[in-house]
Amino acid sequence: MSRFILIQLFLSVVCVNVALSAKTQLNVVPCPQVVEFQTGSCRLSGTPVTIKLGTKNSLELVFEAEQALQLFPIHHTTDKKELTLWLGLFGEHKQFNEICKKYGISRDERIGSEGYILLLQKDLIVIAANSSAGIFYGVQTLKQILMDTKKDNELPCVKIIDWPQYRFRGMMDDISRGPVPTLAFMKNQIRRCAEMKINMLMYYIEHVVETKSHGDFAPDEASITIPQWKMLSDYAKKYHIDLVGSFQSLSHGENILKHPNYKHLAVTFRMFNPLLPETYDFFKNVYSEMIPAFNSDFFAINCDESWDIGVGVTKETVDRIGLEQFFVDHVIKLDNIVKPFNKRSIVWADIPLEHPQILDMLPKDIILGAWEYSPLESYESYLKPLYDKGFDIIVTPGVLNSTRLMPDLIMAHDNIKSFIEAGVDYDAMATLVTVWDDGGMALFSRDWYGVAYSAEKSWNIHGEENNPFDVRFNKTIYGMSNTALTDAIKIIEKLVYLPPTQELNENVLWQKIVPDSGHTLFLRTDYWDEISYICDQTDQALELADANRFAVDLDYFDFSIDQYRYLAQARARMLQAAREYNKAYQVEEQDTFQAREHLLVAKDCINKNIAQLSAIKAEYQRLWLIENKVWWLDKVLNKYQSVLDAYQDVQTHLVKALARLDVNASLLPPADCRLDIVESNGDYFQEWMISGPFANENGAKGTDFDFLTETGGIKSTKPIAGQTFPAPDGQPYRWSKYHSPEFGVIDVTQKIGYAENAVAYANCRIYADADQTVTASFASDDGVDVFLNGENIYSKRGERKFTPDQDSVKLHLNKGTNYVILKLFQGTDDWRFSFQLLNENVKHHKYKYTLLNN
């Protein structure tokens, strides 16, 4: 018996056991464009339903009928009243046409190919559209209406006329920086995206695709084969989602280029060499397998953040023909590989926007993705140049997940709203909300708020004006009776603005909390009581969440709360443990019993830290495995374990200290037991971009020689993370981000290795909303020159030991972005520095710092 006949047998006997609640608003995401409430009401409880298909070819709507069938549980009843649900395409079925005419449903040019008209009457539901996609989206709206019902209540009869703002409404998930989702979770993403009327999905791919021609660069435990991509693409197509193929094709190639079989294709560790014919043979082989596996009309060749153009073997060619021509030649060669497959290439727009001449040179059928993840007053500079040159544009906001313990969903909300609205003004063809996983420990299930909000704005940019999104999000996506989840999100997102949490940066979790043996550790204590209080408030809000759909998502938010609570409590316990040990150390000769009590309190503090972090580690593993393959998990768990090992080492020292008391031996100094901890406050800059070391025979005495001459000299240098540049000695150097794991200290040696008689540069950016003067407090081992916007404002030469805040200087900041570069001189031994702004409230974003109005 055919699948369609089986469906038809079921459709005629299904009954509804749902009542629709009376209201003047509908909880639907995305919000429909037009909602017209009519007289009368619709009570569906216990009413038999018949589903009819109004189309010339019933097979065309089989999947949509299956979706509708799932909305109505089978319920046997003797009630003779009957409700009919019509799913039909305009103009294709005589009886359906008559029904539409009778109830005033006619073609509406606004609904286009994906819109629909949904009519709810006392004994009739009609979903009419021009295509199966429109029917599918109408069914999703009906599904959400039915979910938002209460027993024995009624819904006023209603007519919905709905259509999307954007032709393509997409989501991109980064699966190349750590977590690689299981096929089951990817199917789950497809279903959930389709429910929100998202019709384009992309997975960012650097190396996690296994091809027959080049199957060696993909990790065995994480690769997704071409047949699996084809299966996912076909699965997505059923849900009216285009799965777009993607392969990074210029920079961000480090995961491939580090492989012995592909090192010869590299310019730098991260960029492919466009000068080699073998490079294009490689891409042609990979593309020829990947592209046919995807049903989309597009293929992303990416080519973003190509900062290494013009270094190494490419320098001579770039000097001769220019960076613009070099980039365009590469893109055209890739595009010529894509074109025979009848696909259009997608290229990120950052390099063309930085070098506008490229926009006059690129073929106009290439699609450009404009990306920016900050909430700005205007996105004109990202969109207008592309629009003026006639390119099709993808507007690409982001769910800010990169290197964070949890995404900044408030910032994402504002970015998504403003960027997508701006895209309408420039006739953008698509939106693509991006979920990046830089850092490798992100968990996707906290991102659905941002994905859903992007779906909302992409379908109807005015939807939340009279019907708040947060209310509909909680009720529609999670089936909750309240707004507990978004209430909790708004509370915990307060952590973004507190200095110790550093904009939710994940590095805070790995910040050193146990000193190295023989060393002193400064431990920040201010704000952590407030952080703990915010965690408690968030917990209280989340306890009210009564989700009956996707409830597991809430576990991921609970986990975020637990991590921050641990961070607050663990610091307090470490300080207490250090104090208790120091007390024992001071009184051991006079009162061994009292000394023993102090050691036992210290031991209990460490035990609690071990137990709390062990539970967090176990929960992280559970949540990871719900979404992702096992690959990469050990890299994150090892980080947790390294902290646990440090705690355990302290615990071992404390047990040995108790044993020393037992035999009347003296206790070791606190530093020898890894308990020399000093309470400290201040807003030290923990993340910088660093480059070096450069050989300098004068050592700590310094040198005025400018090692940055190839990038315009220190007066003009405005570094970008990852940027590679040639030094005067002809060797390539790179600006790379470094987040210090130790509060208040940047150890240069930890980043670039031990060096003697050397120079390094450290750069950060300070944004001020007005001209102003602030005081910088800093320290160095050995000498340092301080440059502000290219001007040398302070110099200290010669050998010296690092002492926090040993120097200060006035910074006369301009309105806007200010560039600080420290030129650090090294003689021998330690090579460290620190830097902070005194009495200023500063927000951190990687190596970018923003002065906040006090």
Describe this structure in words.
The chain has 854 residues and is an alpha/beta fold. The protein is 35% helix and 22% strand. The chain has 22 helices and 34 strands. Strand 22 (724-726) and strand 23 form a beta hairpin. Helix 1 (3-11) crosses helix 2 and helix 2 (62-69) runs parallel beside helix 4 (132-147). It is globular. The termini are far apart.
Label this structure with key terms.
globular, disordered N terminus, 34 strands, alpha/beta, 854 residues, 22 helices, eight-stranded parallel β-barrel
Helix and strand arrangement:
Layout: H1 3-11, E1 15-16, E2 34-42, E3 47-54, H2 62-69, E4 83-89, H3 94-102, E5 116-120, E6 124-129, H4 132-147, E7 155-162, E8 168-174, H5 183-195, E9 200-204, E10 209-210, E11 224-225, H6 226-238, E12 242-246, H7 254-257, H8 277-290, E13 298-302, H9 315-321, H10 323-338, E14 344-348, H11 350-354, E15 367-371, H12 380-388, E16 393-396, E17 398-399, H13 409-425, E18 430-435, H14 448-459, H15 469-478, H16 484-492, H17 507-510, E19 521-524, H18 528-542, H19 552-587, H20 592-627, H21 633-662, E20 677-680, E21 687-695, E22 724-726, E23 732-734, E24 736-739, E25 746-747, H22 748-752, E26 758-768, E27 772-781, E28 784-788, E29 791-796, E30 807-813, E31 816-826, E32 832-837, E33 841-845, E34 848-852
Parallel strand pairs: 3-4, 4-6, 8-9, 8-18, 9-12, 10-11, 12-13, 13-14, 14-15, 15-16, 16-18, 17-18, 19-20, 26-34
Antiparallel strand pairs: 1-3, 2-7, 5-6, 5-7, 21-24, 21-26, 22-23, 25-32, 26-31, 27-30, 27-32, 28-29, 28-31, 33-34
